[in-house]
Amino acid sequence: MSRKSSQYGKEGKEGKDNKDGKDYVKQQIHHTQLPKHFKHYPLDKSSEPWGEKAPSTTTQRRELMAKCGPSCFLDPKELKFPICNKISKISKISQKSKKEEETCEYNQRAIKRAVPSRAGQWKYVDITNFLEKSSQKRFGM
């Protein structure tokens, strides 16, 4: 047995990084700049699934950003993690005329379930910490 093989073991010069003998790859952790102020929109507590009300396309997300502002996203620069329902026109009948109003509403299912799980999967630590600490205070849940 040569000195080289006894010094480095079976692995040779490369070796392993940890005591376990496993090579680990660092996971990328994303950092975002959260909006500082959230507007006071009504909270949608309906039983409809978030998937039907979520703004899924980029066009819907841009429209939501234009109408409701950055408080509907937890990452407004990238239009990621929407917490408001997509824009839907509600017809209200008044005595004088028929109006169609566009409403901005926070979605309880998005805030409590969808966004934290997706943020955790993609390692957005800022967003998961923010929702854990402030969902009760900011969104009244």
Any overview of this molecule?
The protein starts with a helix and ends with a helix. The protein has five helices and six strands, in the order αβααβββββαα. α4 runs antiparallel to α5. It has a two-stranded parallel ribbon with strand order 1-6. Strands 2-3 form a two-stranded antiparallel sheet. A hairpin with a 4-residue loop joins β4 (89-93) and β5 (98-102). It is 35% helix and 14% strand. The model is unreliable at 4-15 (pLDDT under 50). The chain has helices at residues 3-8, 50-53, 58-68, 108-121, 125-139; strands at residues 43-44, 73-75, 80-82, 89-93, 98-102, 106-107.
Oligomer: single chain
- Computed structural class: alpha+beta
The number of strands is: 6
Radius of gyration: 24 Å
- What is the percent of helical residues? 25-40%
Total number of distinct structural domains: 1
Taking the sheet with the most strands, its summary is: 2 strands, parallel
Strand ordering within the main sheet: 1-6
Q: How many alpha or pi helices?
A: 5
Unreliable stretches (pLDDT < 50, length at least 5) are 4-15
Topology readout:
Elements: H1 3-8, E1 43-44, H2 50-53, H3 58-68, E2 73-75, E3 80-82, E4 89-93, E5 98-102, E6 106-107, H4 108-121, H5 125-139
Helix pairs in contact: 4-5
List keywords for this structure.
single chain; 141 residues; alpha+beta; two-stranded parallel sheet; two-stranded antiparallel ribbon; 5 helices; 35% helix
